[in-house]
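Lab notes, practical 5.
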Amino acid sequence: MKAATIQRILIVKLSSLGDVVHAMPAVQDLRCAYPQAQMDWVVEGAFAPLVARCEGVGQVIACDLRRWRKAPLAATTRREWKAFKTQLQAQAYDAVIDLQGLSKSALVSWLARTTPTGKRYGLANQTEGSGFEAPARWVADVAIEIEPHVHAVQRSRILCAAALGYDLQGPALAGLHAGALAAAAPVQNAAGGNPFAPKKPVVALVHGTSRLDKEWPQAAWVALGQRLNHAGFSVALAHGNAAEKTTSEAIAKQLQDAWVWPAMALDAMTDTLAQCAGVVGVDSGVSHIAVALDLPHVQLYNFDTAWRTGPEVLAGTDAATASRLPLRQCSVYGQPQPTVDAVWEAWESLATPVLCR
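Output from the prediction step:
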C-alpha cells in the first residue's frame, strides 16, 4: 500500500497497563512515517485516560471486554456492546494493526471496518514471554513473523514497520505527556498555594504489582526510603488498592519524610509522577509509565526478564560507550530479589535532575 493512500490507522492493544505503555513508541514511529494519517486506538476502558495522553492518538475507543465477559447476557452488556460496535465501525481504516495477538484482540480487529484497499495486520507467531492465540493469525490479512527473543517495545515497533513498509529510526519514544496538573505544579509550589506540591525533590516508590512473586520486601522499601531521606529526598508512596495502601502507610510510618498519595486515576497518576525527581518500582504498569515519561527510574526484577520488559539500552551502543553514558533508567535483577545495596547503587548511577547530598 502506498504511503499516500494511508489516511486512517487503527491500533488494537487492549491490555494490560504495562503492555499498553509498551505499544506507545510504535505510535510515534507511525506518526513519523505517516504524518498525514489519523490514528485511533482500541483499549480497555480502564486504560483509556492514559492512551488519550499518547501523542498522535486521535480517537480512543474504549472496549470493556473483561467486564462484559462476566455478564454476557445482561442488558447493560448488550447495550454497551452495541454502542462499542457502532463507534468502532463508524470509520473505515486503511490499516488495522493488532499488536496483542490474542483472540479478544483478533475479534476487535475482525469487527473493525477497512477501506476497499485496507488490510488487517497481526502477529504470525508467539514471542518469548508473551501470549499468542491462533485466531490472531487467521483474522489478519497479513500475518507477520517476529523474532521470538525480542523486547516488548520492539515487538510492536517491528510489527508496525513491517506492516506498513518503513524502517525504524532512533530510540523508542513513548510520546506520553503529562497534563495541566504537572505543568502547573512548579508555579503552585513556588506560590505555596498547593498543599500537595512537594517542598523538595520527591522520589516515588512503586511497590504494588498484580503478582506476589514480583514484590520487593517491605523492609527493603523502608531501608531504601531511609537512604533517600538521608540524601535529601522526600518519599511518596503510590497504591492501587486497599492492600497496597496499607503497605504504603506501613512503609511511610517508618520514614522521616514520607507521604502516601491518595487514590487516583491513571491520568492523574501520570501527572503526579511527572512532578517527581525519580521513581523506584517493581515490574508494574505504573513503573512502565515512569519509563514512558522519561523519568529517572530504577526498575526491580526478581526474575531475569528485564531484557523483555525493562528499560532498554540504546541500540548500536557498544559496551565501552554505554558505560560512560549517564543513564536515566535501568533495571536491577537479583535472586531471590535485588539487594538494597544494589538498588541504591543503581539509583546513584542515574543522571537525576536533582542530586541531593
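Observations recorded by the TA: The first strand starts at residue 8 and ends at 12. Confidence is low (pLDDT under 50) at residues 181-194, 313-322.
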